[in-house]
Structure formats: C-alpha cells, structure tokens
Design goal:
The protein is mostly helical. It has five helices and two strands. A two-stranded parallel sheet has the order 1-2. Helix 4 crosses helix 5. The longest helix is centred in the N-terminal third of the chain and has 16 residues. The radius of gyration is 18 Å and the shape is globular.
Length: 179
C-alpha cells in the first residue's frame, strides 16, 4: 500500500479521546441494536479516516492514480462522522482543491481524484459474501477493538459482535482466533 521503505509510527496515546487510543474502556457485550445511537461512539478515533485519506491522496497524486478506495460501510454511518457519504464527498472536493493534480485537472475541466466507497451501501453479511467470492482470506484480517496480548480477538467488543453477526448472516464461519 505504501512505497517500499515508508514507515509510519503511530503512538496511540498521543491523541487520546477514544477507547481505542486512550485508557478508556472499550464497550463490550452490548446488544447489536444498542450500538446504533445518536451520539459519536467512544470508539471514534479523532480524524482517523482523514489521516488515512490524506496519506492515500498524497500517494495517489505522486503515483498518478485517479482513484482512492476506503472501506467505510452503512453500519458505520450511525455514529462515526468520518464514515458518512457527506464526509467522503467533502474530502474528495478538498483533495481536488488542495493538490497540484486537482488544480491542473480543474483547469482542463476534469476531476483529478475520486474517493471510492464500494462497501458503503453493503451490510456486513454482504461484505463477507463478496470477500469470500473474491477469495479473501479472512483469517488474515481482524476487526477487534480490544485484542488479547497474543492477538486473539476478544469476541465481545462492538466490532467483534458486528463481524460475527455478519459472518453468521452470510452463512459462513469466521476463521480468526477468538479468546
């Protein structure tokens, strides 16, 4: 994904403000219907997708790519502000205003960069089925917000529960190791 030799060091305690980046308990064993609420979840990481998209935009511009893909989906709309279609559209506009490629393309009446969200309207079960049909080895993936020190998924956080529900609804077994 990044050029050979590129290294990124993220210190999770630098920003805080999230159960994923600070000493705040990760919610566990909540019913799936309780995960959808009106506020921003405590597992929201400040500007996470903005950071990811900024790096991807820079790499796309340098490499001449015209498309950047991000895996946000419908279940994340409920509370994560950087997973909404409005956010993605705004980032795409900003990327086309803030890059040389964008300015040069606009001068020609074109758009330099498109942010693609192929999973945005899909349920977790649909995503699992699509991945299986494409040969994705889900054993190499994880969604857990609170893995054990040896890397096993907790099986109790919101992400694990949504993942397990997606696999069950897809009629498949999640191959990752759970604690």
């Amino acid at each position: 994904m990044f050029p050979h030799g590129t290294r990124f060091f993220f210190r999770t305690r630098v920003f805080g403000g999230s159960a994923l980046t600070a000493d705040i308990a990760v919610p566990k064993d909540r019913p799936v219907d309780a995960m959808s609420h009106d506020g921003v979840p405590i597992t929201y990481v400040p500007a996470r997708n903005t950071v990811f998209l900024a790096y991807a935009t820079a790499l796309a511009e340098v490499s001449g790519a015209r498309d950047v893909f991000i895996g946000v989906n419908i279940l994340d709309w409920s509370g994560y502000p950087d997973c909404r279609p409005e956010y993605v559209a705004a980032f795409e506009r900003m990327a086309n205003l803030a890059t040389r490629a964008g300015v040069e393309a606009a001068a020609r009446g074109e758009t330099a960069l498109s942010i693609r969200t192929p999973l945005i309207d899909m349920t977790k079960a649909e995503i699992v089925r699509l991945g299986l049909s494409l040969g994705v080895d889900y054993g190499d993936t994880t969604s857990c917000y609170d893995p054990t020190p040896d890397g096993a998924a907790c099986g109790h956080c919101d992400a694990c529960q949504l993942r397990l529900k997606g696999f069950a609804e897809a009629g498949a077994t999640d191959p990752i190791r759970y604690a």
